[in-house]
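Objective 1b: paired records.
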Amino acid sequence: MTRLVTLEDIRAAAERIEGKAVRTPLIAVGGPPLYIKCENFQPMGAFKFRGVLNMLARLSPEALAAGVVTYSSGNHGQALALAARQFGTRAVVVMPETAPRVKVEGVRGYGGEVIFAGTTSLQRKARAESELSARGLTMVPPFDHAWIIEGAGTTGLEIVEQCPDVTSVYVPVGGGGLLAGVAAAVKGTRPDARVIGVEPAGAPKMSTSRAAGHPVTLEKTSSIADGLVALRPGEITFAHAQALVDEVITVDDGAIAAAIGWLFREARIVAEPSGATAVAGALKAGAISEGTVAVVSGGNVSPGDYVGYLREA
């Protein structure tokens, strides 16, 4: 049976990354307010920095000295490159051939080495494992690892501290690391609060898996939310979703673009499509009440693409 990350694990992670990751603000927008957790304010623009910092802090000196490798559509790779620089080690990031240029440049700008491999997460993972074997690197998975989930969970810990009367939390779903961590933190402190995962309609890997009762690999996925198009949830993240998440819903690309526009107009917040997906879910659900929170998970988007999404909104 998979061991779930505990509230104590997440609190320990919060101490580990304190002073490195940003304690991001929770902003009230509209009335009744939708509270926005601004993870786009992290140093590299996304929540991924939390999990990577926690994992690197827990690695042995020998593992760190060997260098680290991961597979990522963009934000996890940027987080690893920046954290690796801070820890004095090298980072290799395997990215899809279709990765947004802004995210590729971000990895390189933080000093990471970029390798391109295919278009799916499974292709990237295979290449990263090959690099690990050939070069003696240490793997830092993008989502399916307890230490990554612990770090991501510090987002949920802050939400409860900033909004003690939280009633529901909407979380974007890619591989499920953020959903798992936030659910563990929120349910560990506010058991009655609802946790709702939101994924693109073109990449319903978690909702499909929950319906089947086990992780399912989709044949293909497609969405403007490039960070959420994994073909399959993680084994560990799925176990957390089954045990702790109240509901998983889907939103189409039009709703995601509309949420990008809503965030800009109502809060002057710049969100990438993946980052705006939870807001799209909250807006779709309607009847926002006091204590409703949506996580804006990232803001790494090129100016040209951003303008296009605003025009669609």
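Objective 1b, second protein:
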Amino acid sequence: MVSASFRFYDALNDFLARAHRGATFGAVCARNATTKHMIEALGVPHTEVALILVNGVSSGLERLLEEGDRVAVYPRFSRLDIGPLARLDDRPPGRMRFVADAHLGGLARLLRMAGFDTIYRNTLDDAEIEALAGDADRVVLTRDRALLMRRGIAFGAYVRALQAQDQLREIVARYDLAERARPFTLCLHCNAPLRSAGKAEVFERLPPAVRASHDAFSACDCCGRVFWKGSHWQRMAAMLAAMDLDPARGAMEG
């Protein structure tokens, strides 16, 4: 066993026991314990950590702790300018893709609206979410910090906001998604790509009022839904524009 001291900064304190918040405190570590092991043992998901300093030197999650180590842990969004120090990886390589847990259906729908591939089924359990994240480097979105501590989850976000629109704003800011958004290109219901469809092709699936007033449509070949630029599209487009997500592409209603 070894002893080390810890200090967590800013929003990471929300995960700690009350007695440990905003203070330096000592903790006994198992032999061969890593920084990741101890940070999570103290209640903080590793996905929320941007920077670890051990004895003033930037460190990774797999560093073995030694007797007397001083560990400082900083969150993402910290106001601290860390300059050349090495941040921990926050996002997977390539395009951003997500998997949301059962409590974030509203957020999943809004991410799809913005054009981000997001798996969501309210029947998914933690093991299935972990497998989906590992198979395709998806970012796990959850309000369950224990889920983010599972061994197979490399990238994830603890979603702090309670309302879906606020949650979307939080994720857009965290991952700088504005320039990557492709609104109204995915089906809100099944996450499949949408394609342009001629009016004659979808005519029988349209309400009578829509047949008379609209000529441009998008269709989902997975679930068969048809979308158009109606009043619902206008409300969603305004919401996306308020978040600097370009709503000019695509068609949506249905």
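The chain has a mean pLDDT of 90. The chain has three domains: 2-75, 98-180, 183-254.
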